[in-house]
Design brief:
Elements (H helix, E strand, L loop, with lengths): L2 H15 L6 E5 L5 E3 H15 L8 H10 L18 H16 L4 H16 L3 H20 L23 H18 L1
Antiparallel strand pairs: 1-2
Length: 188
Protein backbone atom coordinates (compact mmCIF):
# COMPACT_ATOMS: atom_id res chain seq x y z
CA UNK A 1 0.00 0.00 0.00
CA UNK A 2 1.34 3.42 -0.97
CA UNK A 3 2.11 5.90 1.80
CA UNK A 4 -0.56 8.39 0.62
CA UNK A 5 -3.24 5.71 0.61
CA UNK A 6 -2.25 4.53 4.08
CA UNK A 7 -2.41 8.11 5.39
CA UNK A 8 -5.81 8.60 3.74
CA UNK A 9 -7.09 5.47 5.46
CA UNK A 10 -5.74 6.59 8.83
CA UNK A 11 -7.43 9.97 8.40
CA UNK A 12 -10.72 8.37 7.35
CA UNK A 13 -10.61 6.15 10.45
CA UNK A 14 -9.83 9.04 12.79
CA UNK A 15 -12.56 11.17 11.22
CA UNK A 16 -15.06 8.34 11.71
CA UNK A 17 -14.08 7.87 15.37
CA UNK A 18 -15.11 11.48 16.02
CA UNK A 19 -18.65 10.08 16.26
CA UNK A 20 -17.71 8.57 19.65
CA UNK A 21 -17.67 12.10 21.09
CA UNK A 22 -21.44 12.19 20.45
CA UNK A 23 -22.28 8.84 22.07
CA UNK A 24 -23.68 9.56 25.52
CA UNK A 25 -23.38 7.24 28.49
CA UNK A 26 -25.58 6.88 31.54
CA UNK A 27 -22.96 8.71 33.58
CA UNK A 28 -22.98 12.37 34.48
CA UNK A 29 -20.09 14.78 34.93
CA UNK A 30 -19.51 16.83 38.03
CA UNK A 31 -21.06 19.84 36.26
CA UNK A 32 -24.24 17.88 35.48
CA UNK A 33 -23.57 17.21 31.79
CA UNK A 34 -23.95 13.68 30.45
CA UNK A 35 -20.60 12.01 29.73
CA UNK A 36 -19.62 10.79 26.25
CA UNK A 37 -18.05 7.42 25.58
CA UNK A 38 -14.97 9.23 24.22
CA UNK A 39 -14.54 11.05 27.54
CA UNK A 40 -14.82 7.76 29.42
CA UNK A 41 -12.23 6.11 27.16
CA UNK A 42 -9.82 9.03 27.59
CA UNK A 43 -10.03 8.94 31.39
CA UNK A 44 -9.74 5.16 31.40
CA UNK A 45 -6.51 5.44 29.35
CA UNK A 46 -5.18 8.06 31.76
CA UNK A 47 -6.09 5.86 34.75
CA UNK A 48 -4.36 2.88 33.13
CA UNK A 49 -1.25 4.96 32.40
CA UNK A 50 -1.05 5.79 36.11
CA UNK A 51 -1.56 2.19 37.18
CA UNK A 52 0.92 0.65 34.70
CA UNK A 53 3.81 1.43 37.04
CA UNK A 54 2.29 -1.11 39.43
CA UNK A 55 2.27 -3.77 36.71
CA UNK A 56 5.65 -3.65 34.93
CA UNK A 57 5.14 -7.16 33.55
CA UNK A 58 2.27 -5.97 31.33
CA UNK A 59 2.55 -4.62 27.79
CA UNK A 60 1.78 -0.95 28.48
CA UNK A 61 1.29 0.04 24.85
CA UNK A 62 -1.25 -2.77 24.44
CA UNK A 63 -3.05 -1.73 27.64
CA UNK A 64 -3.35 1.88 26.49
CA UNK A 65 -4.53 0.94 23.01
CA UNK A 66 -7.05 -1.45 24.56
CA UNK A 67 -8.40 1.40 26.70
CA UNK A 68 -8.79 3.63 23.68
CA UNK A 69 -10.58 1.08 21.48
CA UNK A 70 -12.51 -1.02 24.02
CA UNK A 71 -15.78 0.89 23.50
CA UNK A 72 -15.51 1.61 19.76
CA UNK A 73 -18.30 -0.93 19.29
CA UNK A 74 -20.65 1.76 20.64
CA UNK A 75 -19.83 4.13 17.77
CA UNK A 76 -22.89 3.46 15.60
CA UNK A 77 -25.53 2.05 17.95
CA UNK A 78 -24.68 3.89 21.17
CA UNK A 79 -23.97 2.79 24.72
CA UNK A 80 -26.18 0.23 26.38
CA UNK A 81 -25.80 0.54 30.13
CA UNK A 82 -24.96 -2.60 32.09
CA UNK A 83 -27.59 -1.43 34.59
CA UNK A 84 -30.24 -2.22 31.96
CA UNK A 85 -29.11 -5.87 32.05
CA UNK A 86 -28.95 -6.26 28.27
CA UNK A 87 -28.68 -9.59 26.47
CA UNK A 88 -24.88 -9.90 26.48
CA UNK A 89 -24.66 -12.06 23.33
CA UNK A 90 -26.81 -9.66 21.34
CA UNK A 91 -24.90 -6.63 22.64
CA UNK A 92 -21.57 -8.26 21.77
CA UNK A 93 -22.77 -9.19 18.25
CA UNK A 94 -23.93 -5.61 17.59
CA UNK A 95 -20.67 -4.17 18.87
CA UNK A 96 -18.63 -6.61 16.80
CA UNK A 97 -20.50 -5.56 13.65
CA UNK A 98 -19.76 -1.95 14.54
CA UNK A 99 -16.02 -2.45 15.06
CA UNK A 100 -15.78 -4.52 11.88
CA UNK A 101 -17.41 -1.64 10.01
CA UNK A 102 -15.16 0.94 11.68
CA UNK A 103 -11.95 -1.07 11.37
CA UNK A 104 -12.64 -1.54 7.63
CA UNK A 105 -11.36 2.02 7.24
CA UNK A 106 -7.90 0.81 8.30
CA UNK A 107 -5.19 -0.88 6.25
CA UNK A 108 -5.28 -4.68 6.64
CA UNK A 109 -2.43 -4.96 9.15
CA UNK A 110 -3.89 -2.29 11.44
CA UNK A 111 -7.41 -3.71 11.06
CA UNK A 112 -6.20 -7.16 12.15
CA UNK A 113 -4.24 -5.71 15.10
CA UNK A 114 -7.11 -3.55 16.34
CA UNK A 115 -9.61 -6.40 15.99
CA UNK A 116 -7.30 -8.76 17.90
CA UNK A 117 -6.94 -6.25 20.74
CA UNK A 118 -10.69 -5.54 20.80
CA UNK A 119 -11.43 -9.28 20.98
CA UNK A 120 -8.75 -9.83 23.63
CA UNK A 121 -10.49 -7.23 25.80
CA UNK A 122 -13.97 -8.63 25.22
CA UNK A 123 -12.83 -12.19 25.90
CA UNK A 124 -10.76 -11.11 28.91
CA UNK A 125 -8.06 -13.38 27.51
CA UNK A 126 -4.89 -11.77 28.87
CA UNK A 127 -3.56 -10.07 32.00
CA UNK A 128 -3.68 -6.79 30.05
CA UNK A 129 -7.38 -7.30 29.28
CA UNK A 130 -8.13 -8.21 32.87
CA UNK A 131 -6.51 -5.00 34.13
CA UNK A 132 -8.37 -2.89 31.58
CA UNK A 133 -11.66 -4.62 32.47
CA UNK A 134 -11.13 -3.81 36.16
CA UNK A 135 -10.12 -0.22 35.47
CA UNK A 136 -13.03 0.22 33.05
CA UNK A 137 -15.43 -0.73 35.85
CA UNK A 138 -13.48 1.41 38.34
CA UNK A 139 -13.58 4.48 36.09
CA UNK A 140 -17.32 4.05 35.60
CA UNK A 141 -17.93 3.76 39.34
CA UNK A 142 -15.68 6.77 39.96
CA UNK A 143 -17.71 8.79 37.47
CA UNK A 144 -20.95 7.70 39.08
CA UNK A 145 -19.62 8.78 42.46
CA UNK A 146 -18.27 12.11 41.14
CA UNK A 147 -21.14 12.97 38.86
CA UNK A 148 -24.12 15.20 39.41
CA UNK A 149 -26.56 12.34 38.89
CA UNK A 150 -30.34 12.39 38.62
CA UNK A 151 -32.16 12.00 41.93
CA UNK A 152 -33.22 8.43 41.11
CA UNK A 153 -29.67 7.26 40.30
CA UNK A 154 -29.08 3.66 41.43
CA UNK A 155 -25.85 3.75 43.45
CA UNK A 156 -26.57 0.25 44.78
CA UNK A 157 -25.76 -1.10 41.32
CA UNK A 158 -22.15 0.07 41.74
CA UNK A 159 -21.61 -2.21 44.73
CA UNK A 160 -21.82 -5.34 42.59
CA UNK A 161 -20.85 -3.92 39.17
CA UNK A 162 -17.80 -5.78 37.85
CA UNK A 163 -16.74 -6.94 41.32
CA UNK A 164 -15.24 -10.18 39.99
CA UNK A 165 -12.49 -8.27 38.13
CA UNK A 166 -11.04 -7.00 41.42
CA UNK A 167 -10.82 -10.19 43.47
CA UNK A 168 -7.60 -11.83 42.28
CA UNK A 169 -5.25 -8.90 42.80
CA UNK A 170 -4.52 -7.22 46.14
CA UNK A 171 -4.06 -3.75 44.69
CA UNK A 172 -7.25 -4.01 42.66
CA UNK A 173 -9.11 -5.33 45.72
CA UNK A 174 -7.92 -2.30 47.72
CA UNK A 175 -9.01 0.01 44.89
CA UNK A 176 -12.42 -1.63 44.81
CA UNK A 177 -12.78 -1.28 48.58
CA UNK A 178 -12.16 2.47 48.28
CA UNK A 179 -14.70 2.77 45.47
CA UNK A 180 -17.29 0.82 47.44
CA UNK A 181 -16.77 3.08 50.45
CA UNK A 182 -17.34 6.14 48.24
CA UNK A 183 -20.47 4.54 46.80
CA UNK A 184 -21.85 3.71 50.25
CA UNK A 185 -21.59 7.38 51.24
CA UNK A 186 -24.04 8.17 48.42
CA UNK A 187 -26.48 5.53 49.64
CA UNK A 188 -26.59 6.54 53.31
Amino acid sequence: MMEEERLDRYLAFIKETELLKNVLRTAWGSAGRQESTAEHSWRLALFAALMLGEYPELDGKRVLLMCLIHDLGELYDGDISAALLPDEQQKHAEEQRSVERLFSFLPDKDRENFMAIWKEYNENSSPEAHLVKALDKAETILQHNQGMNPSDFDYEFNLQYGAAYFREDGLMAALRDRLDQETKRHIM
